[in-house]
Amino acid sequence: MNLSGFYLEFPMTCRIVSCDDMACFIKSGDMIVVDARPSTMFKRFRIVNSVIYKEFCTSAENKTGLSGKKIVFVCSRGHKSLRLGSVFSKKYGIDTYSLEGGLTEFMRKHPDLMVMRSDSR
User: Fold this and answer.
1) Is residue 7 scored above 70 in pLDDT?
2) List of domains in the chain
3) DSSP summary character for residue 97
4) Does the N-terminal or the C-terminal CB of the chain have fewer CB atoms within 10 Å?
5) Nearest to residue 37, comparing CAs of 99, 96, 93, 91?
6) pTM of the full structure
7) CA–CA dist 108, 119 (Å, integer)
8) What is the mean pLDDT of the chain?
9) Mean pLDDT: which of 83-87, 88-92, 111-115 is highest?
10) DSSP alpha helices (H): ranges in 14-99?
11) CA–CA distance, 20 with 72 (Å, rounded to integer)
12) Residue 49: which residues within 8 A CB-CB, separation 6 or more?
């Protein structure tokens, strides 16, 4: 489901990034991926080199490592990440992005950029 048109009608300070553009961001390495899902879900599967929201909040408060980076918020479907990205953009005056379709869509299109837990626990 493409929701880009919907969000254009309700502008926010967080930009939407497609799964393919996100894959390019990851490969270029000039970004921080912030996973807004619960830690149990983060441990099961995540985008390579992503950080959990709580860790990111600590670095954001200290403003460490944010300069010159694209900050992309991700969640399961893309709704929560859009809200969080907007809040951070306004609060810190930084550019933020939200992954369109969330991890559900990204995992389908780019499984090679996912880390999956290998044990069965």
Assistant:
1) no
2) 11-113 (3.40.250.10)
3) E
4) C
5) 99
6) 0.82
7) 21
8) 84
9) 111-115
10) 19-28, 39-44, 53-62, 79-92
11) 13
12) 26, 33
